[in-house]
Amino acid sequence: MFRRTRVHDFPRINPVRLLDDLKTLRSFGANGPGVVRLSLSPVDMEARRWLAGRMTDAGLDATIDGVGTVFGRSRKPGPALVIGSHTDTQPTGGWLDGALGVIYGLEIARALDECAATRDFAIDVASWIDEEGTFSSFLGSRSFVGDAIDASLQHARNRDGVLLGDALAQAGMANVPRVVLDRARQRAYLEPHIEQGGRLEASGKSIGVVTTIVGIREFQLCFTGQRNHAGTTPMSIRRDAGAALVAFIARVDAAFGRLADADTVWTVGRIDLDPGSFSVVPGKADMYLQFRDGKPERLHAMESALAALVDEWNVQHAVQVELMPCDGPEEPVVMDTTLQQHIAQAAEAVAPGQWIHMPSGASHDAQVIAHHIPACMLFVPSIGGVSHDSIEDTAEAHIVLGCEVAARAAAGIVEALRVRFDG
Amino acid sequence: MFRRTRVHDFPRINPVRLLDDLKTLRSFGANGPGVVRLSLSPVDMEARRWLAGRMTDAGLDATIDGVGTVFGRSRKPGPALVIGSHTDTQPTGGWLDGALGVIYGLEIARALDECAATRDFAIDVASWIDEEGTFSSFLGSRSFVGDAIDASLQHARNRDGVLLGDALAQAGMANVPRVVLDRARQRAYLEPHIEQGGRLEASGKSIGVVTTIVGIREFQLCFTGQRNHAGTTPMSIRRDAGAALVAFIARVDAAFGRLADADTVWTVGRIDLDPGSFSVVPGKADMYLQFRDGKPERLHAMESALAALVDEWNVQHAVQVELMPCDGPEEPVVMDTTLQQHIAQAAEAVAPGQWIHMPSGASHDAQVIAHHIPACMLFVPSIGGVSHDSIEDTAEAHIVLGCEVAARAAAGIVEALRVRFDG
Asked: Any idea which positions bind Zn(2+) 1 (chains A, B) (predicted)?
């Protein structure tokens, strides 16, 4: 358990150094206020080489591994806490999504090294490749924990059709070894991240202690009716696939509304009517439905409700609907409760009353790593709840506060690991 | 008025010649069972030259005019009935949409010429260019009646970006004169056409006497909400433009349902959610709404209801909607009632009880010409109500029957015109 050390022995982060590194990283792929730094692109590789250099400056043994992950291994003996996130971005991304957690890790490694009480604490720092899925989501963290990535290496392509394997070869990593989890040494994982939502801001809090990364289900629903002339086909004999889709959404909303709690979300993100013109009654219509929740049993109930709606619809209507799962389901991942306590105690010490427990509605590398070692996440507020957009931002005061809390939590976590390790 | 002539004096069409000509025309641009014959394309021009040749064979003075309309002028003195339609097709069109009416005109000109009682009757035959709007809808009929087409000639482009003026020059028609309506001679217009809908088939009838070509309104409705992460944004604080659009459609359906009669139609043909992905709450959503009715007062009531729904919505909701008219409104066009009677009497004589009065839900050249001379339309059934599709078809028995009715109607119309002319 976390043992309180004396106040003057706490590691102190350097806010100027932290912000300078974040802003330098922002310059690689800067695009207005945002950043375009797609995995393995030339500018992404430039940023990775810069990051490896900063890790080396911090006294870490830095490497860019065989999939592109930048890993800074502490020279100190274990047990080690891994702090990481990602430095690749969305096609038009913001400057903090991922970058924040990586630079926090770098700053925390430096800060602990500069503090007498924590000088021997091992902090390994990671920037996992391709969290955003330019080629294959969570490629770096999946590779690190030993998940099978051969299919990704052979078949994954980016939007331009470039194969992942070719992109890695192009970036000079064809025969570079991959960093893999050393379970004897690396005993816990911390991923600081921007919230990417508006809960902290709405509640006036500064720190989120993540309880769960929610599970996700994605379905395509394809409606098949009869394409017809929009002028000559009376309403009474139409089989309008688009009208069916719209009516079906109302049923989904009603059914999910009955099952949901305040954290449940569902989204129709895309609708395609075929052929998609003023004068043609749509013969086909597709919708893309995603829902997320932190409780596996609620996700299953929602899946069952959706399947029942489809069956019911097809009995009642001439326009038929087919339900097709997209991607594998992502199950909710609970964050390690002991690590959550470390973050909560650090937050309460640094910013009393200014933190909350909350789920992560977004996916993160932590959900991959949590299946192998205890993992936790810390959130800082996103201004306006905006993310995956060039205007994504966080107040500098929150950036600094979040790193202070994370540093204190990291110290506590490693201290507890060392007690257990030695014990 | 129509005076009944003796039975043996009726013009008799030649079914084999009629079907042969239709099938030969089908061979220009044949594409499976359908036809691809876009206005002014090489194959369209080939078909036009063939058609002009068939008109010449029929004793008509045939010309391809300065916009591409094929016009076969009878050498007989007026008054003349113009029978026409179009031989251009949709990008993937059927074989009868337009072609039927043009070949009916050709066959009727021949049949009347071969009948002692109608030998002196003048039938002019037209294939108006570009009814389907490859460059500019109804170009040929608009040019014929003297509507301004200069803007079309200068600015209209096809999907490949080719200017209409360039396409005409390319087809050798840069300095060819245009055929224009001779009001002293051309006193009525008949356009036979496939129904392009399923009413005749559903009612078991063979001939439709068109009462009105319905009016059309087209609107784009743009919903503006807040784009957000679909995982991290609670339902309670979302401003989902797509969800707003779906809810709005239900209101439109309810409001239009209260105003509609059995012939009123409305269609949401296209929906775009932005950015259109599983994981993003749509920040913008567009829908394209068209409605059609034969009564101007109902179209106005629907427009008013739609505007009221928009105002009401914007007061009630954070997601705002903007209503934007697309293209000019098309007002309903009533077919000449005397000409309708001629068709009805001919139908009753040839196929007693096998005809109905009905509106045309689709647009036709007749709506352009009806503003200048009395115009009427006759429909034959479309199998399965299908049109604007390669499988568009009509039973041969219906093709032949429709031409018999049209020929008898044409004889009656010209006879009546001649009585008035002489009188």
From this structure: 86, 97, 193
- Judged against a pLDDT cut of 80, whether residue A101 lies above it is answered with yes
Q: Which of B131, B78, B16, B35 is nearest to B367 (CA)?
A: B131
Q: What is the pLDDT of residue B52?
A: 98
**Measured between CA atoms, how close is B404 to chain A, in angstroms?**
24
Please report which confidence band the pLDDT of residue A8 belongs to, taking 50, 70 and 90 as the band edges.
low
- Which pLDDT band holds residue B228 (cuts at 50, 70, 90)? confident
Q: How far apart are CA A280 and CA A229, in angstroms?
A: 5
Q: Do A232 and B196 touch (CB under 8 A)?
A: yes
Closest CA to B252 of B235, B234, B271, B239: B271
Backbone angles phi, psi at A357, to 5 degrees: -80, 145
Of A196, A229, A250, nearest to B388 by CB-CB distance is A229
Give the chain B residue whose CA is nearest to the CA of A245: B246
pLDDT tens digits, one per residue of A135-161: 999 999 999 999 999 999 999 999 899
- Asked if the domains B7-213+332-422 and B215-325 are classified in one and the same CATH topology, the answer is no
| Angle (deg, nearest 10), helices A42-57 and A99-114 | 10
Spell out the CATH class of B7-213+332-422. Answer: alpha beta
- Per-residue pLDDT at A423 exceeds 90: no
Taking the domains of chain B in order of start, what are their residue ranges? 7-213+332-422, 215-325
What is the rounded CA–CA span in Å between residue B192 and residue B199?
16
3.30.70.360, 2.40.170.20, 3.20.20.70, 3.40.50.1000: CATH of A215-325: 3.30.70.360
Q: Which two tokens stand for residue B159?
A: 């999907």
φ, ψ dihedrals at B420, nearest 5°: -65, -40
Helices (H), B83-138: 99-113
The interface predicted TM-score (ipTM) is 0.87
